[in-house]
User: Fold this.
Amino acid sequence: MADTDEPEKKRRRVVELTEKMVVDGGSGRTCEWEGRWNHIKKFLERSGPFTHPDFEPSTESLQFMLETCKILVIGAGGLGCELLKDLALSGFHNIHVVDMDTIDMSNLNRQFLFRPNDVGRPKADVAAGFVNSRIPGCCVVPHFKKIQDLDETFYRQFHIIVCGLDSIIARRWMNGMLLSFLVYEDGVLDPGSIIPLIDGGTEGFKGNARVILPGMTACIDCTLELYPPQINFPMCTIASMPRLPEHCVEYVRMLLWPKEKPFGDGVVLDGDDPEHIQWVYQRSLERAAEFNITGVTYRLTQGVVKRIIPAVASTNAVIAAACATEVFKIASSAYIPLNNYMVFNDVDGLYTYTFEAERKENCSACSQVPLDMHFSPSSKLQEMLDYLTESASLQMKSPAITATVEGKNKTLYLQSVASIEQRTRPNLSKTLKELGLTDGQELAVADATTPQTLLFRLRFTS
Amino acid sequence: MDTRFQGKMLETTFFLATTALERTEHRLPLSCYKNLTVMCLETLSRRFTIVIGVQLPESTCLRLGSVLWSASVPFLVCKSYGLIGYMRLVVQEHTVIESHPDNALEDLRLYKPFAELKNHIDSYDLDSMDKKDHSHTPWIIIVAKHLEKWLSEHNCQAPKNYKEKEAFRQFIREGILKNENDVPEDEENFEEAIKNVNTALNPTKIPSAVDDLFNSEQCNSITSQTPSFWLMLRAVKEFALNEGNGSLPVRGTIPDMIADSQKFINLQNVYREKAMQDAGAVCKHVESLLQSFGKPPESVSEKDIKLFCKNSSFLRVVRCRSLAEEYNVDSVNKDEITSSMDNPDSEMVFYLMLRAVDRFYQQHSRYPGVYNYQVEDDISKLKLCVTSLLQEYSLNVNIKDDYIHEFCRYGAAEPHTVAAFLGGSAAQEAIKIISHQFVPFNNTFIYNAMSQTSATLQL
Assistant:
């Protein structure tokens, strides 16, 4: 598309780029040049019929985006690399990125900010370094950490947070963190306390992008049932009735390895160590031969051990682009943001479906009302634990339950600290009545899926 | 082909360095450009599996399109304009064997089990099994056994509607073993059987899409030039008419299910062996077809035929109209355009606006609203283009002024995120064309970043 200095003359020119494409290097030149932001300025400085009602054309919006607006990108993998590129090229120059992983060879086919030399280095560091040297003026600050290692002071500094995660637990945690910032005055939500969360997810040829305005729109937990719990193979199948090659590999991984400790005591199975995989592969073949099962290959073995879900670069590009567009819309008020969930699938042609995910009235994360739990006084604590982990709307991982009993704070059960686990384990087989719990009692539950403790109200059934 | 490298391009192009700004610009003689049309068709088709045209002016696009159509080279056109993305696929005939459908039904043949399957089912006697065996019998056997009884009691009529299927499910439930207190045992395999009744009882039919292919010209007029896809299809058709007794070759796979290893593997092998047998029969048909043209049987490999048979329910052929057909007043798809525009905010309006903008470029040698001072005046100029477009094609549709204003506002901008969305989409479509796996779109894709919606139109 031409934006000519001499509009009347049509000239054809071919620019030969003989020097090496600066994919690997930097520029180190001046930050601004003529026409750099022409594309974006059209959306910031011109009025239009479809803009957000609050939008006002201004030359200051660009300055805000370049200098002041702070974006947090969570994840520097398939989606993260795309997000960083998209945001940097859209005028966001204050970006932080968090990722706890290091670079693996298998990442290189799509996580394009990384090179073979970078294998083993932290993703956040390398990604930030690449973008900073490639986009003059852009400042990406890396954090080689788990999201749980950063506190609320850290998260509060951002205008918008974008997630490119591969874990539902992490999403829920982030969701919970932003919900904890919400301020209500006389029951009315202060919009200034909202930090928008843009969430992207992909798996193979499918993906989704959603806009979450905590306290206003559906949150991650409101739509938890959209994420079916991961299905693991039942133990009895693995132990005594394998049918698929995958069952054979899981048998070796879960039962043989801990028993035989092939590389020494305490040596954990490392999916990236070819010797480990080779060992698992050989034993899986033996297992399969016992049952006349065909199909065990080295590749399948590694796939099962590393829990590899095939990733497609183009899906990441599409979903990240949609997310970055939403960041732009929200930061600039240029258009009404996506309301609020888009699904994408390009297995057969290209298919998108956009809808408004609804808030759940009794959402465990955002409804603010302590959730009721109904149990008979003679139910055992174990039943409560099972409910918390197995219910589709809660899907907790290892909840810690505390209650105020006779004026004192009592830990009923906690799994994550061995000594406390041991001490409280007998409580699991005690009834709620025996534990001193009363009808209408408040229980506090902590779990990896949320940074905040959730409050439940115990209701006794007869 | 014709680009002027400018600073603003760096905003949108990730892999061009700022150092490239200092490049001197070379001029290419106009004659070289004209030679594009004279380029040898043979060379084109030999050299490129696919050609992707990005941000091409309309005239270039049409000229290139016509050359590539004659050379039978797939052409993918991509445009990003403001917040709109556009893709057009132009391919005469694209065959797909491995379409990998998302929700494929299993090929279990429970309605009319083939002989080997029937024998295998007969080898089970559910009533005389001990509990362990009973609980680890594959659900396929359970459904088959109960279906046998049902058919004998219902005049050979399989359960059809919801009521009958519900009764059938209940019938299976009654087959669950009971303990000494007459309480049903926990038999997960029976629960699986009940869950799968809906899908397992589908009669084995040749899918209509495949039937259409069987009835097509290419399938029935095989020559020595016919590509192997149609040759194999014809062989499968012959198989269906003969050894297959009206059905496609057995697929040979079964889903995982609760069962002990031996029962599962044995059942799986029954299907696998039948699939091999059927593929073998198809191979014979392929051979005789090849022979009739004096071609050696190795011309089509056994591996390819096996893959074809396994995927025979999922075969797809995509045929796109040419750009000439789309743009020609006599062959324009008026129905598609006018029916879409019943909703004046449908994605079709963006297609029409892109066409109008192309018209604008032809007339004014620039795009509307590029500079701020142009926006206001260009709205009326663009509106004239819209009117003349609709008139030329006799399209009785109404385009709201808002869209005309919006397209002037865009000023031919290419914000990166819109281009990235389209780039990812286009890349995958190109891979589909090259790999012949998964099904490409047919034939126009519009992406609207304002609402995060999209549509596929056949123009």
